[in-house]
Design goal:
Blueprint: E1 19-23, H1 30-45, E2 63-66, H2 78-92, E3 98-102, H3 111-126, E4 132-137, E5 154-162, E6 175-182, H4 193-208, H5 222-226, E7 235-241, E8 246-253, E9 260-264, E10 271-272, E11 277-280, E12 286-289, E13 297-300, E14 311-315, E15 321-325, E16 331-334, E17 342-343, E18 349-352, E19 357-359, E20 361-366, E21 369-380, E22 386-391, E23 394-398, E24 411-417, E25 421-428, E26 434-439, E27 445-450, E28 458-463, E29 478-480, E30 490-492, E31 496-498, H6 501-505, E32 513-515, E33 540-544, H7 549-557, E34 562-570, E35 574-581, E36 584-586, E37 592-597, H8 606-617, E38 627-633, E39 636-642, H9 649-653, H10 664-684, E40 688-690, E41 699-701, E42 707-709, E43 716-718, E44 724-726, H11 739-744, E45 746-748, H12 749-764, H13 787-800, H14 811-818
Parallel strand pairs: 1-4, 1-5, 2-3, 3-4
Antiparallel strand pairs: 5-6, 7-8, 8-9, 8-10, 11-12, 12-13, 14-15, 15-16, 17-26, 18-19, 18-25, 20-21, 21-22, 22-23, 24-25, 26-27, 27-28, 29-30, 31-32, 33-35, 34-35, 36-37, 37-39, 38-39, 40-43, 41-42, 44-45
Helix pairs in contact: 2-3, 3-4, 10-12, 10-14, 12-13
Length: about 850
C-alpha cells in the first residue's frame, strides 16, 4: 500500500454519540483520519466540493485543534502546548463546535499528561450539551469502563489491523489496514506495561475525585510537617471570581461551604474576563498572564534558578504555596513570605532581618475586592515589640506586648526576637477547628474559627471591639475605663488636666491631658497607677530583668528622659523592670516639643548656639526643622524644636530591622526632600546659608517620614554674591565633609553638595562592587525598587562627590535631575587623593608633594 492511497472511512457523529474516542497503535492512521474529517467540514462550510459519496454536515461554528506542534517554540514543551490548546477549547467551544484531540496528553506519561487527558474527557462527558469531539490515543487500556463515567455520549472506534500472533504486542508484528471500525484496540502497542499501570492509576484518581489530589508530599519543612492538616481541610489553589468580571488566582478552603480565600496572587491586577494563562517559565518563575497571548503578566513569583535546574509548584496542606527546585529540593519562594489579608497557622508575622522581608497583613478593599485596602496588621519592632493594627500609617489598635498575652485555649502563640528575625507565630491546639487571623476591610483584626458542627465561621476574638480598645482614644497622660454607660470613659492621670476642656466636655478626649503645674514645685517622684493595661511600649526598654521595685525606680530617676516605670511579672521568669523614655516635652498649650540640650563635650560653644538660633529663626521651609524657642541659664543651653516622632534618618538606615520600613518610594521622597531643603538654603531663602554639617543624623523625620534638615550650629551665612570662604577651624563630621574643606579649609555651596552626595549614596547603597551597579543597592529593599531610578540616583550621588568642586552640580541642577527625565552626565571615578599640594599658611595641615588623585592623568 503506497503512502498516497486514500482509504475512505464513514463518520457519524449525532446528538446521542457526540464524543468519539479512537484507539490504536501509532502509525495506524488515527491522525490522518481526524484531519480528513476536519478538512471535509471546512470544505463544506466554504461551499467547496466534498470528496464523499454522501454528506450531511451540520452547522459548525469553529474547529478547535489540540494536536501538539512539530515546531517546539521557545520555553514551551509539548505538554504546555497541549495545556494552552485545550484551555481555549474548554472555555470557548459550544455544542456546534468540532474539537479534535490527536494523541492528546502524549507529551508526558506522568501526572501532568495523563491528568489533563483524563480531566478533559471527564469534562466533556459531564457536559449537558458537549461539542462534537474526535479524540485519538494509543493508550487504549486507559479507557476502560473503570476509568470513564458511564455515558451514552461516548462511542469507541479503533483502526483495524492484522496480527499474525494474537498475543504479540510488538508493533513490528502487525499490519495496518487504515480502516475505522467500532470497538477498541486490544493493546497499547510499544508502551511498557508498568507505564500503562501507573498511567491507569493516575487517571483513575483524577476521574474519581472531586479535586486533583497532590500526589507528592516530599520536601516539607519541619514547620509544615508540624502544621500539616488532614485531607479534610486541605486548601485549593485556583482562579476565583471577584467583583464584576474580575478574576484572581488564590488559595481557599475548598470544603468550607462559604468560599474563604486566604491568599491572592494578583490582588491588585485582576484578570478581566475569562482569559488568563498560568505556567512556569524557563527561569523557574510561576507566571500569570492576563490573556492567552502571554504578553501581559499580571503576577510572578519573581525568582530565578540555575540554567541546569528547574522548578515545580506545590501547595502544602498548611496552605503554603511553594516553588521547589527539582535538583536540590530547596524552597526558593513561598506564599507564606507574601501574605495578603490572612495569617494561617504556622505562618510568620514580622521581620526577617537576614532576608529583608517584612511579613504583614493588609485588608481587602471590600468583601468582594481583594485589592490592597487601607488597614494593615504588623509588628512594631521599636522598644518592646507588639502587634499593631493601622489605618494607613495611623495606629488604631494594638495587642499586649510580648511576653504578656491573654490566654487563648484554642491556639498556642509564640514570639521570637533575635538578631535574625522578629516575628509572632501560632499553632492550633484543637484539631477539630480551623483558625485564621485576618486584617478585615471593616477596620478590625479578627480571629475566626470554624468546625464541622458549627457549619460557619465564628468570631473567636475581634479588636478593636470596645471603646477603650482604640489606640489613643483618650490621648496622652490619661486612662480609659468603661465604668458605666452614662459616664465618660476618659480620665486624666493624677496631676494632669484635659488639654482641651471644651472638647472633653463633649466627650472627645483625643487631645489627652497636660500637667496642671510645673513638675519642679513639689520635688521629684512617681504616682502609682494600678489595674490598667500597659501603655504603648514603642518607647519602652528593659532596664534589667531581675531588679526590684526600688531599684527600678532609682534607675528611672537617674535618666532625665525616663517618664515612667513598671515591674512586670513574666510567666515562668519572675519580675522584670520596664521603663518608658520620651524625647519630648509639652509647652503650656500642650504642644509636643523636642528639647536639644547642648552637651559640654559637644564642642559647640555659646557662639555656635547663638548662630543656630539666629539662622533657624530666619528660615521657613517644609524640609527644615522649625525652631519654637530657646533657653540659656548659666551653663545650660537648650533649643526647643517641633517634635518629630520618627527621629533621625540614621536611626533607620543603620539598623537592620528599621531599615526594612524604608521602602523605595519613601527613600526616593526623602532624597528629594533633602535636596529641596538644601536648595532653599543655597538659593531660595533670604540668606545664602552653607550648612557645613549635613549628615544622616541631622536629617529628622516627621510622622509622614518627610525629611527636615536640623542642627545649624556650624552653618555659615554668605552675604551678597559671596560663593565661597575659608576657615582655619575645620568643623563637621569626617566622611561627609568635602576634600577641599577637610584639607584646605575651603567651603562653598559645593561643600554641601558633597555631603548630600554621601547621604544619597548611604540611602541607596550598602556596598560597592566594581561594574555591578545594582548590587550596591541596599539589600533590605529586596528588589522592590526601580532599577532605572536606582542607577540614576547612584549616578547623581557620584556626581556630587567628585573631587573637584567645579565638577559637582549645583543643588538646583540636582533637584532638576531628580524631578525630570533629563539625561544625567556620567561621573568621573570618585577620588581618594588630591591632585596637587596646596600651600595655605593658615591651615595647620600639610599635604606631601607628589600625591595625586585617581582622576589625574
Amino acid at each position: 500500500m503506497t503512502v498516497d492511497t486514500f482509504i475512505p472511512n464513514d463518520t457519524k457523529i449525532h446528538h446521542d454519540e457526540r464524543i468519539i474516542i479512537i484507539t490504536g497503535p501509532n502509525y495506524s492512521g488515527k491522525s490522518i483520519y481526524i484531519k480528513q474529517v476536519a478538512l471535509i467540514v471546512f470544505l463544506s462550510h466554504i461551499g467547496s466540493f466534498v470528496p464523499a459519496d454522501a454528506a450531511t454536515v451540520g452547522l459548525t461554528d469553529r474547529i478547535f485543534c489540540a494536536t501538539g506542534s512539530k515546531l517546539m517554540t521557545a520555553e514551551q514543551s509539548t505538554f504546555m502546548i497541549d495545556l494552552h490548546q485545550v484551555g481555549l477549547m474548554l472555555r470557548q467551544a459550544t455544542s456546534r463546535s468540532l474539537c479534535l484531540l490527536d494523541e492528546f496528553g502524549k507529551g508526558t506519561l506522568t501526572e501532568d499528561g495523563v491528568g489533563i487527558l483524563g480531566g478533559t474527557v471527564n469534562y466533556f462527558v459531564a457536559c449537558d450539551d458537549p461539542p462534537k469531539v474526535l479524540m485519538s490515543t494509543h493508550l487504549t487500556e486507559l479507557f476502560n469502563d473503570g476509568c470513564l463515567p458511564k455515558s451514552e455520549k461516548v462511542k469507541f472506534f479503533t483502526m483495524s489491523l492484522l496480527r499474525p500472533d494474537n498475543n504479540s504486542t510488538d508493533v513490528k508484528d502487525i499490519v495496518f489496514l487504515y480502516r475505522l471500525v467500532p470497538g477498541r484496540a486490544l493493546h497499547s502497542y510499544g508502551v511498557p506495561e508498568e507505564v500503562i499501570k501507573r498511567a491507569a492509576f493516575i487517571l483513575d484518581t483524577v476521574g474519581s475525585s472531586d479535586y486533583v489530589e497532590r500526589l507528592c508530599n516530599e520536601n516539607l519543612s519541619a514547620q509544615d510537617q508540624l502544621n500539616k492538616d488532614t485531607v479534610d481541610r486541605m486548601l485549593e489553589f485556583d482562579v476565583f471570581k471577584g467583583s464584576s468580571s474580575n478574576r484572581y488566582l488564590g488559595i481557599w478552603y475548598y470544603k468550607v461551604p462559604e468560599k474563604t480565600v486566604v491568599w491572592v496572587a494578583n490582588r491588585n491586577d485582576p484578570i478581566i474576563g475569562s482569559s488568563g494563562f498560568l505556567f512556569i517559565n524557563q527561569h523557574g518563575n510561576l507566571v500569570l498572564y492576563g490573556n492567552d497571548d502571554q504578553k501581559l503578566p499580571v503576577w510572578s513569583t519573581d525568582v530565578s534558578v540555575e540554567e541546569d535546574d528547574s522548578c515545580e509548584a506545590q501547595l502544602l496542606d498548611s496552605g503554603n504555596l511553594i516553588m521547589v527546585t527539582k535538583r536540590s529540593s530547596s524552597i526558593i519562594w513561598q506564599s507564606f513570605d507574601h501574605p495578603t489579608n490572612t495569617l494561617l497557622p504556622g505562618m510568620k508575622l514580622g521581620l526577617d532581618r537576614k532576608l529583608g522581608i517584612d511579613r504583614f497583613l493588609t485588608s481587602w478593599r471590600s468583601a468582594d475586592d481583594p485589592g490592597t485596602g487601607d488597614f494593615s496588621l504588623r509588628i512594631n519592632p521599636n522598644g518592646l515589640p507588639g502587634v499593631f493594627l493601622y489605618n494607613g500609617t495611623k495606629p488604631i489598635a494594638r495587642s499586649l506586648p510580648w511576653p504578656w498575652r491573654s490566654h487563648m485555649s484554642l491556639y498556642n502563640r509564640a514570639f521570637v526576637n533575635d538578631p535574625d528575625e522578629i516575628y509572632t507565630i501560632y499553632t492550633v491546639s484543637d484539631d477539630s477547628y480551623l483558625l485564621r487571623i485576618i486584617a478585615d476591610h471593616s477596620g478590625h483584626s479578627k480571629a475566626l474559627s470554624w468546625r464541622q458542627s458549627d457549619g460557619q465561621w465564628k468570631d473567636y476574638w475581634k479588636t478593636p471591639q470596645f471603646q477603650c480598645d482604640y489606640y489613643g482614644l483618650c490621648g496622652a497622660y490619661s486612662t480609659c475605663e468603661v465604668a458605666h454607660p452614662s459616664e465618660f470613659v476618659c480620665a486624666c492621670l493624677p496631676g494632669f488636666e484635659p488639654k482641651y476642656q471644651e472638647k472633653w466636655s463633649v466627650r472627645d478626649g483625643s487631645g489627652g491631658c497636660v500637667r496642671r503645674a510645673s513638675v519642679c514645685d513639689h520635688g521629684e517622684g512617681f504616682v502609682k497607677i494600678e489595674n490598667y493595661c500597659l501603655p504603648d511600649t514603642s518607647n519602652a526598654a528593659w532596664v534589667d530583668k531581675s531588679k526590684s521595685r526600688a531599684d527600678c525606680e532609682l534607675e528611672c530617676k537617674r535618666n532625665c528622659s525616663c517618664s515612667a516605670y513598671s515591674i512586670i511579672g513574666i510567666p515562668g521568669k519572675g519580675d522584670a523592670c520596664l521603663t518608658w523614655y520620651r524625647e519630648l516635652g509639652l509647652l503650656a498649650n500642650g504642644q509636643e516639643v523636642a528639647v536639644k540640650r547642648l552637651s559640654r563635650s559637644s564642642g559647640q560653644g555659646t557662639e555656635e548656639f547663638k548662630n543656630e538660633v539666629m539662622v533657624i529663626a530666619k528660615l521657613q521651609h517644609r524640609n527644615l526643622v522649625k525652631l519654637l524657642g530657646y533657653c540659656i541659664q548659666n551653663e545650660e543651653q537648650m533649643l526647643i524644636y517641633e517634635y518629630l516622632p520618627n527621629k533621625s534618618l540614621d536611626w533607620f538606615l543603620f539598623d537592620e530591622t528599621r531599615k526594612l520600613l524604608l521602602d523605595w518610594p519613601k527613600r526616593f521622597d526623602i532624597i528629594v526632600g533633602i535636596a529641596r531643603g538644601i536648595l532653599y538654603l543655597h538659593q531660595d531663602s533670604r540668606l545664602r546659608i552653607i550648612h557645613r554639617d549635613l549628615k544622616c543624623s541631622n536629617i529628622l523625620l516627621d510622622a509622614e517620614m518627610n525629611p527636615k534638615i536640623s542642627d545649624f550650629g556650624m552653618a555659615k551665612i554668605f552675604e551678597g554674591n559671596q560663593t565661597e570662604d575659608r576657615t582655619r577651624r575645620v568643623v563637621g563630621t569626617y566622611g561627609y565633609m568635602s576634600p577641599e574643606y577637610v584639607v584646605f579649609g575651603n567651603f562653598s555651596v559645593k561643600s554641601d553638595v558633597f555631603s548630600f552626595g554621601v547621604m544619597l549614596l548611604e540611602i541607596v547603597w550598602e556596598l560597592w562592587r566594581q561594574d555591578k551597579a545594582l548590587e550596591i543597592v541596599d539589600p533590605s529593599l529586596n528588589e522592590l525598587y526601580s532599577p532605572r531610578e536606582a542607577l540614576e540616583l547612584i549616578r547623581i550621588g557620584l556626581l556630587c562627590v567628585q573631587e573637584d568642586a567645579m565638577d559637582r552640580p549645583s543643588m538646583l541642577a540636582v533637584v532638576f535631575m531628580l524631578s525630570s527625565e533629563t539625561e544625567i552626565p556620567s561621573p568621573k571615578q570618585p577620588a581618594f587623593l588630591f591632585k596637587e599640594p596646596h600651600n595655605n599658611p593658615d591651615i595647620a595641615l600639610s599635604v606631601e608633594d607628589g600625591l595625586c588623585s585617581v582622576n589625574q592623568s
